[in-house]
Amino acid sequence: MSASEESIAAFRHRDDLASIPVYRQGKPAPAGRRAFKLSSNENPYGPLPSVIKAIDSTALTTMNRYPDMHGWKVVERLAAKYDVSPDSIILGAGSSEVITELVNALSGAGTEVIFPWRSFEAYPIIVRGSGATPVEVPLTADLRHDIPSMINAVTDRTRLIIVNNPNNPTGTTVSRAEAEQLLNAVPKDVVVLFDEAYYQFNTDPDTELGMDLFRRYPNVVVARTFSKAYGLAGLRIGFGIGPAPVIAEMGKVALPFAVSDVAQTAAVASLDAQDELEERVRDLIAERDRIMTALAEQGWHVPPSGANYFWLQLGELTDTVAEKLTEAGVIARVFSGDGIRISIGTHEANDLVIDTCAAIIHELPAVADQWSPSR
Ligand SMILES: Cc1ncc(COP(=O)(O)O)c(C=O)c1O
């Protein structure tokens, strides 16, 4: 029995608590030496300059008041941007809250939620938290969504299917044809969530996939966030777009006032700063491509990434490589026995990633044999 089970045993509690995994935050960079936190897919640059200005001048003076619960100033902007009805939009304290609301609204004990695996660490936690059973469909050998197997996993108990595009942590993307194959095969009363936390970094022409599909299929919900490209991870604001009846039910299970006024003001200012945003996204994509090219030249096999991170599939060498990265000051996200996800950082951090990876493959050439694309 673990320590937490021992202590909770003294209280009446849910029988399935022990089955809920614990979310582990990306490690911080250690103080006192040169090290870069590349463990949480954060934007290495601060918030956009115009966003800081907007917060300074308005939001900081309203902290004595509760925020607008529905965040209308953001909802109206998003409705205009995406040309959808405001009742198709819901805000959350990050898209993790939006995803949690969707899972809680649709599923519960005795039901199932299908998602790819390995994928976003929060999915099994959120699904277990609702009382539902996670149905984890392994990625293909190319570390992509296995669409036929996801379709085969659908049962009468299925309440939700999650598509993570680009997939965290592998960076791999889902094509339009694959998404349509899924949507055409599953019952129309099963909701399909497109979690697009990183879509701005996806240079595929289908990068607006989720919104296009929302317009064409009645059962699509899209989750997006201001945490990544917009650089507002610390403020906690994301949003969902979906069929109005689904959004209304999500509202019932939402935590009231979860999205602060500061976050709402920052989100509106971010939407106004499209040019500044695009410049940063272009820079991060160029940096990602620079790292990927350098690693390929060194002999690494890296799956193509459409996100602000990339994945090293390292199997049993994962911990050894993680140690070497940490020693060098590269603080990455380590999935022991499986692989390592490294976020794209500043130019200086990325130089360190490239140099450290060169040293690692020189010392340990077997890292190149742990995975290679099947095509
Ligand atoms: C795939 C994916 N979805 C959703 C989120 C949630 O981000 P946030 O709650 O900050 O919007 C993350 C964060 O890492 C993610 O990787």
From TrEMBL:
Its cofactor is pyridoxal 5'-phosphate. GO terms for molecular function: aromatic-amino-acid transaminase activity; histidinol-phosphate transaminase activity; pyridoxal phosphate binding. GO terms for biological process: L-histidine biosynthetic process. Coiled coil: none annotated. It catalyses: an aromatic L-alpha-amino acid + 2-oxoglutarate = an aromatic oxo-acid + L-glutamate. Its EC number is 2.6.1.57. Residues 36-353 form the Aminotransferase class I/classII large domain. Gene3D superfamilies: Aspartate Aminotransferase, domain 1, Type I PLP-dependent aspartate aminotransferase-like (Major domain). Keywords: Aminotransferase, Pyridoxal phosphate, Transferase. PROSITE patterns: AA_TRANSFER_CLASS_2 (PS00599). Pfam families: Aminotran_1_2 (PF00155). The modification N6-(pyridoxal phosphate)lysine is found at K228. The keyword Cell division does not apply. Aminotransferase that catalyzes the conversion of aromatic amino acids and 2-oxoglutarate into corresponding aromatic oxo acids and L-glutamate. Belongs to the class-II pyridoxal-phosphate-dependent aminotransferase family. NCBIfam families: hisC (TIGR01141), PRK03321.1 (NF002878). Homodimer. PANTHER family: HISTIDINOL-PHOSPHATE AMINOTRANSFERASE (PTHR43643:SF3), HISTIDINOL-PHOSPHATE AMINOTRANSFERASE 2 (PTHR43643). This is Aromatic amino acid aminotransferase.
